[in-house]
Design brief:
Layout: E1 2-5, E2 8-9, E3 19-22, E4 24-32, E5 37-43, E6 47-52, E7 55-59, H1 63-77, E8 83-88, H2 93-99, E9 106-111, H3 114-123, H4 125-128, E10 137-141, H5 144-150, E11 155-161, H6 177-185, E12 187-199, H7 206-216, E13 221-229, E14 234-242, H8 252-261, H9 273-280, H10 284-302
Parallel strand pairs: 1-3, 8-9, 8-11, 9-10, 11-12
Antiparallel strand pairs: 1-2, 4-5, 5-6, 6-7, 12-14, 13-14
Helix pairs in contact: 1-2, 8-9
Bound molecules: S-adenosylmethionine.
Length: 303
């Protein structure tokens, strides 16, 4: 999603096919880190907005929709998540949500860009809400692909919250079968991985399909789900994968029961059993896009 603001164009990645406007009351930060362009804008509707390389990452007034949707389906599906790995997630809100689960006793967060993390911690404290200071969390400033290739630690859940797959962006090498294979190696038995998988509609779906199909080569059960995020102006998608668990089969009552047991029911604003069912119930056109991709892969494998 490319964005423009009053007087500022931050559509820096080639010719935009589509531009969204935000009414901007002020620019709180604008600079270049070693890895990406970073802006923090103050907008009328969405509050503070984090923009990296011209793409909105999250907004103060609806970041809970994105972060709860990313984190809780995986952690609620896992019966007893203890060790969690987050790749990316610079704002600290993915960390905040993972730490809500009382069984979680260690979360490693890996972000390539220390300047983004520092700026978010300082200027967007509403996102992390002290999560970086939680004794259970450990922050590593390094490339996610190197961490995953080299660590010996095992995890129950891996949450991949990196920037979109931009050709020149710092995340591009993490959109690959090799990276997902390395992630699988880090999972404890019954482990779950969830990936933020970009926009997913009948018109815009190439990146999503790539993530979905790559994970399908590696895991037994792979499901796409989606949620409209107002500040992204589209249905945002996620792919969840496991060799054991099937989050799409979890019933609403069971999700709500697990949430009560974990003390999450009043803590969350967006996610519960009904929201889970809604997110996993994809429209016909989206299902057809995935069916078509599976069919093409099958035909290629047979030929
Ligand atoms: N919600 C987001 C979205 O819509 O794209 C993702 C949010 S989060 C800010 C993305 C983070 O991924 C950034 O902090 C960025 O520094 C980090 N990142 C990008 N490439 C990375 C890599 N190779 N290893 C680890 N972190 C990476």
């Amino acid at each position: 999603m490319l964005t423009c603001a009053d007087g500022f164009s931050f559509a820096e990645n080639g010719d935009p096919e589509e531009v969204h406007y935000y009414k901007v009351d002020g620019v709180l930060f604008s600079g270049k880190t070693n890895f990406q362009n970073m802006m923090i804008l103050d907008t009328e509707r969405f509050g503070k907005l984090l923009v990296l390389d011209g793409r909105v990452q999250s907004a103060q007034n609806d970041e809970h929709i994105y972060h709860e949707s990313l984190v809780h389906p995986a952690l609620i599906t896992h019966p007893n998540p203890r060790n969690v790995l987050i790749i990316g997630g610079g704002e600290g809100a993915t960390l905040r949500e993972a730490l809500r689960h009382p069984s979680v006793n260690y979360v490693a967060m890996i972000d390539i860009d220390g300047e983004v993390v520092d700026n978010c911690r300082r200027m967007l404290p509403e996102w992390s809400q002290g999560a970086f200071d939680d004794q259970r969390s450990e922050l590593f400033i390094t490339d996610g692909k190197d961490f995953v290739a080299n660590t010996a630690t095992k995890f129950d859940c891996v949450i991949i919250d990196i920037c979109d797959a931009l050709e020149d962006g710092p995340a591009i090498e993490l959109y690959s079968g090799k990276f997902y294979n390395d992630v699988k190696r880090l999972l404890n038995p019954g482990g779950i991985v969830v990936v933020q998988a970009m926009e997913f509609s009948n018109l815009v779906n190439k990146d999503h399909v790539f993530v979905h199909m790559s994970l399908r080569q590696i895991f037994q059960n792979v499901r796409s789900y989606a949620q409209y995020v107002p500040s992204f102006w589209c249905n945002w998608s996620f792919v969840i994968a496991s060799d054991v668990h099937e989050p799409e089969t979890l019933k609403c009552d069971e999700i709500n029961r697990r949430m009560r047991l974990r003390g999450l029911d009043s803590a969350l604003v967006h996610y519960d059993g009904d929201t889970h069912a809604h997110m996993f119930s994809l429209p016909k056109a989206n299902r057809r896009v995935l069916d078509q991709a599976c069919m093409e892969t099958l035909q290629r494998n047979v030929a």
